[in-house]
Each structure stands twice: as structure tokens, then as C-alpha cells.
Design goal:
The protein is α/β, with parallel strands linked by helices. It is built from twelve helices and 14 strands. The longest helix is centred in the middle third of the chain and has 27 residues. The chain is globular.
């Protein structure tokens, strides 16, 4: 009887998910760490060579107004997986162990640091895993269960959040080899790259599940610090391209970008060799804006850890052969929390199980149109109520974008900045004083949203 019940339930799930197994598309989600909006050749970068991602863009849809849900890693990843904003989740910063020190002498008292993504939050994998084989390979960064930086733990990792299998292996990234080796070059011939165990494990997942529907999250450690290439030939290549006086960090970062592209190319080639690329939806994006010490922002202001465009605008590409028009470009603003409902709809799971999500499916956009009714005017919002003093000295802030206007609110000064992104993508001309009614309207709308989701806000220390 129990076996009959399980088979019947699985059959029902198959029907819900769109019929026969062969009709359901696979999903490959490629999430890069700290990749800036203009770091790719297909986004106009004149130095970095990214041939595999460029081909992906040429065969799919490239987004010019795609955003991460947060200007920092953990918060963005939690949002992406759940369809909820970091403000709604109360997960607005990097996961930190209990008792982590907060900045001293600040005007405002920030909220406590988030620690773990609760198991009560349902991920896209939990929605799909009855009908799909689900795998997660790479960076999780949503728990401090074992107090090890980036460690998965045993009860709060991806395998407890709907993914059937996976690995946290660091691969060839600088995280993955011992400190005594850092700064040394691998013994690789020109045009070759060190083997990357994480990519090899992801390739094996594709091989093992090629005859059944799958969703693979390939969560790269590239191009996060420490940025230090292991390829001497690649280092020499970019030293020549950038010139003899080029900053060492920029040389290594350019080499990191091409290395990242190479490993992504291995996955794309595997899909082709297995004959499953035609029925695989590929989504490529970054978890936040680029690190301002390395990343090319192409006039975007600031970078990671801030809510200026350089901190949250990211590259995004979607390819689905025969369904998404090759070489198409969309300027529709989308946010990281939109990927959850989008994947759900693309795989036939139109009934979202999460209550109170912020994301909206962008399937209508992928089909060449705009948003569904009312979607074009919907607000995108961000909430970063923390101090982060290293690198950029960021202070508590929130932001909202509606159409062409974007407003940023700074808590310390009780101050707003307003920008017209259509004419001022670089956010150099604050028009809050010239358009005070627009700024006030957007501030009211932002705080109405934050209040409705129970957002944690900083408080005065006196």
C-alpha cells in the first residue's frame, strides 16, 4: 500500500510538472561570485576574454537591467533560492557565527548578523525535487553550523534544503589549495588550465542524470578573492594586454575571469556532447556586483557592499534553444528574487509553495515581451541595514527602483538620493532636490514595503 501511494504521488507530481518526463526541460543555473556588470566581453569589456559566455549570450537573451537582490553574497543567495527579498527573510548580510563583533562607535546600532537560512524556508529545489534530480555544487554560504568559513555543515546545507546531491569542494580556486602554495603557478602549458574538481563533479552529475529531468546549481567560487591566478601563461598574457605598468590585481583578476569562463565552457560542452543542450534552460548571473578593487563597472558607481548600481547591477543571460530568441537583449529591470518563480513556471510548477515571496516570473519577458499586466511599474527594492567599513565604508541604506527612477535612503543622515537611470546610469546627478515630490513618493513606497515585510532597521545608539 505504501509503495502504491508513493508511485501515485510521484505520478501526480509528474502531471503537475508538465506531463511526460521527456517534456520537462532541464535547468542549469550558473551563479558566479562577485562578477561585475561589465566584466564580460559580451557586456563590452575591452580586456577580458570570455568566449564561452559570449557564445552563450549570442544564443540566448542578455539582460542589461538585471540586479542581484543584495550587494553582498549570503543575502543574495538566500533570496535567489527562496524568491524572497533579504528584508523579508531577515537575512541581509553575510552569514556570521554567533557573537561576531559589530562595528564600534557608529551612530546607529545595526541588526544582529544573520547566521543560518532556516529549514522552514522552502527553496526552489524543494519545489522541484519530486519531479527533478537536483544537484548543488560549490559555494553555499548560508550557514555557520560548523563555524567554518563557507562550510556546508550537516544539517543546514543544500542537502537539507531540497538538493539530492552535491559537493562543497573548492576546486582550483585559491580557496582550494594550501596557503603554502598560494602565489605559485601551476605546471600548465599555454592554453591549458588546472583541473577543477568542482567542475568535474558537476560534469559527472550531468552525465549521470542525462536521461532524466535535472536541475543543477553550479555555484562558483570564482571570481571572489583571493584573486591569484595559477596560470603563468595567462598571467603573462594579461600583463602584455594591460601594459607593463598595470596593477598586479587587475592582471590576476583578468586571468581569473578567463579561467571562470573556461570552466563554464566545460559544462556547456558537456551538454552538447550528451545531446541534452536543446532541452536545457541555462541561466547565468552573479550573486552581487563586482569587488571595486578589481571589477570594471563601466561607469557604474561604486561596487559590492553598496546599493549604488555597481553593487547590485549584474550580468544575466538566459538560453533555451528554440524558445528564447538567440541574440536578443532585454532592458526590462529584473531582480534576483525573480529567478525562483521563473524556474518554477518554466518547469511546470506554476503554484509557488512559498507564502509571501517577492519575485515574479519573467517567462513573458523571455518570450520576447514585457511583464505581465502591471509588472512594468512594479518596484524593485533592496535593504542593507549594516555597516561594512573595510574597502568602501558602507553605512546602513535601502533603495527602490520604479521604472527609470531609483531612490537610495541613507539611515544615518535621514537622507535620500534620486537618480534617473535612463539618462544617468553612473548615478552622478542626484535629482532629489529638483524632484522632491518624486523622491518623497518613492521614500514612502520603500518604507511601506519594508514595513509590510517586517524589515529589520537600524536604531539610534543614544
Amino acid at each position: 500500500m505504501y509503495r502504491f501511494f508513493i508511485l501515485s504521488f510521484c505520478l501526480l507530481q509528474c502531471l503537475i510538472a508538465g506531463g511526460k518526463e521527456s517534456d520537462r526541460p532541464n535547468v542549469l543555473f550558473i551563479l558566479v561570485d562577485d562578477l561585475g556588470w561589465a566584466d564580460l566581453a559580451c557586456y563590452g569589456n575591452p580586456v577580458h576574454e570570455t568566449p564561452h559566455i559570449d557564445r552563450l549570450a549570442a544564443s540566448g537573451m542578455t539582460f542589461t537591467n538585471a540586479y542581484a537582490s543584495a550587494p553582498i553574497c549570503s543575502a543574495s543567495r538566500a533570496s535567489l533560492l527562496t524568491g524572497k527579498s533579504p528584508a523579508r527573510l531577515g537575512f541581509e548580510f553575510v552569514s556570521k557565527p554567533d557573537g561576531s563583533n559589530t562595528p564600534k562607535g557608529t551612530l546607529l546600532s545595526q541588526p544582529s548578523y544573520p547566521r543560518d537560512l532556516p529549514l522552514s524556508e522552502k527553496t526552489i529545489a524543494e519545489q522541484l525535487n519530486l519531479a527533478y534530480s537536483t544537484g548543488y555544487f560549490g559555494k553555499w554560504h548560508l550557514t555557520q553550523e560548523n563555524d567554518a568559513y563557507l562550510g556546508w555543515g550537516t544539517t543546514l546545507g543544500p542537502l537539507q534544503q531540497g538538493f539530492h546531491t552535491g559537493s562543497e569542494h573548492r576546486g582550483s580556486h585559491s580557496y582550494g589549495y594550501s596557503p603554502t602554495e598560494k602565489g605559485t603557478f601551476a605546471d600548465s602549458k599555454a592554453g591549458t588550465f588546472p583541473a577543477d574538481s568542482l567542475t568535474e563533479l558537476a560534469v559527472r552529475f550531468l552525465e549521470e542524470h542525462r536521461t532524466e529531468p535535472f536541475m543543477l546549481f553550479y555555484s562558483m567560487y570564482y571570481v571572489h578573492t583571493p584573486v591569484k591566478t595559477r596560470n603563468k601563461w595567462l598571467y603573462d598574457k594579461y600583463r602584455e594586454k594591460l601594459g607593463p605598468d598595470a596593477d598586479e590585481a587587475l592582471i590576476n583578476y583578468a586571468a581569473f575571469i578567463e579561467t571562470m569562463d573556461h570552466y563554464i565552457g566545460q559544462l556547456l560542452r558537456t551538454l552538447e556532447e550528451l545531446g541534452i543542450d536543446e532541452n536545457t534552460i541555462i541561466i547565468f548571473t552573479s550573486d552581487n556586483g563586482g569587488d571595486p578593487r578589481f571589477s570594471e563597472s563601466d561607469l557604474l558607481r561604486s561596487g559590492k557592499w553598496t546599493l549604488y548600481e555597481g553593487g547590485i547591477r549584474v550580468p544575466a543571460i538566459v538560453r533555451w534553444n528554440g524558445r528564447v530568441k538567440s541574440g536578443s537583449v532585454s532592458d526590462v529591470p529584473i531582480n534576483g528574487y525573480d529567478w525562483y518563480p521563473t524556474i518554477a513556471e518554466l518547469t511546470g510548477h506554476s503554484a509557488i509553495t512559498n507564502d509571501g515571496i517577492d519575485g515574479q516570473s519573467i517567462v513573458s519577458v523571455l518570450r520576447g515581451g514585457q511583464w505581465a499586466a502591471g509588472g512594468n511599474s512594479r518596484p524593485l527594492y533592496w535593504h542593507f541595514p549594516f555597516y561594512h567599513q573595510p574597502v568602501v565604508d558602507s553605512k546602513p541604506q535601502s533603495a527602490i527602483r520604479v521604472g527609470k527612477y531609483k531612490m537610495i535612503y541613507f539611515y544615518e543622515e535621514d537622507r535620500t538620493e534620486l537618480y534617473n537611470l535612463d539618462s544617468d546610469r553612473a548615478e552622478t546627478h542626484d535629482i532629489a532636490r529638483s524632484l522632491p515630490e518624486q523622491a518623497a513618493k518613492m521614500k514612502d513606497e520603500l518604507f511601506s514595503i519594508l514595513d509590510s515585510v517586517g524589515a529589520r532597521v537600524p536604531s539610534r545608539t543614544y
